[in-house]
Prior knowledge:
- By secondary structure, this protein is of the alpha+beta class.
- It folds into two domains: about 15-95, Arc Repressor Mutant, subunit A, CATH 1.10.10.10; about 115-215, 2-Layer Sandwich (Nonspecific Lipid-transfer Protein, Chain A), CATH 3.30.1050.
- Helix content is about 35%, strand content about 20%.
- The protein is built from ten helices and seven strands.
- The chain has helices spanning about 15-25, 30-35, 45-50, 55-70, 90-95, 95-105, 120-130, 180-185, 190-195, 205-215; strands spanning about 70-75, 85-90, 140-145, 150-155, 160-165, 175, 200-205.
- The strands form two sheets. Strands 5-4-3-6-7 form a five-stranded mixed sheet. Strands 1-2 form a two-stranded antiparallel sheet.
- Helix 6 packs across helix 7 (about 120-130).
- The radius of gyration is 19 Å and the shape is globular.
Amino acid sequence: MKLEKITSGRSYDDACATAHALDLIGERWALLVLRELMLGARRFGDLRASLPGISANVLTQRLEGLESAGIVRRRKLSPPASVQVYELTAWGAEAEPIVLALGRWAVRSPWHDPSLPLSPVALMLSFRAKFDPARARRVRVSIGFRFGDETFSVMVRDAALTTARADFGATEAQVSGAPGSVAALIYGKVRLEKLERQGALAVTGDRRMLQRFVDLFELPSKADTST
């Protein structure tokens, strides 16, 4: 069976499944739309806010293409919300390891710029991508993150990490600020006290638990592109 106009209507016309994957999600912005849906259903406006470089027209096109391909579906929330949201199908959600693997690979690029805008979902998924179970064998910690109106919880138990949209307060430590500032703390190893003095982050709860979480992450070395 051949799908027509999955995204722009162009195809590699190649039987390789990798080529077909690019037919499905290789269009500009499609993979990032997929990323933003990996922690649950989102409204159109929420998706656009998380992808500030995309126009409403292009976002509509990508959502329609992903829906036609069976990767995304639309549904209407029950009253009193009664708004339309987009979410991944079960098959669409199976793409998560692909997104995480791309992130693990590309973070080693010498040209990766961590100062560029970062969405809350992208940050949460980065924890999944960079988590090393071997470093967390004896760690039990739960951290809450607030980014504006969005709240998440991250839990480490039994050398496994889970992230979810959840209550901000039901955790051992709570962090409020911009995703980029949290990334600076965890990946850039900028001291928490410095970020607090700058007004970039606010922390409540058990600061020792937050430090234990920060210590779980270490960025890999940059790739040697000369060989």
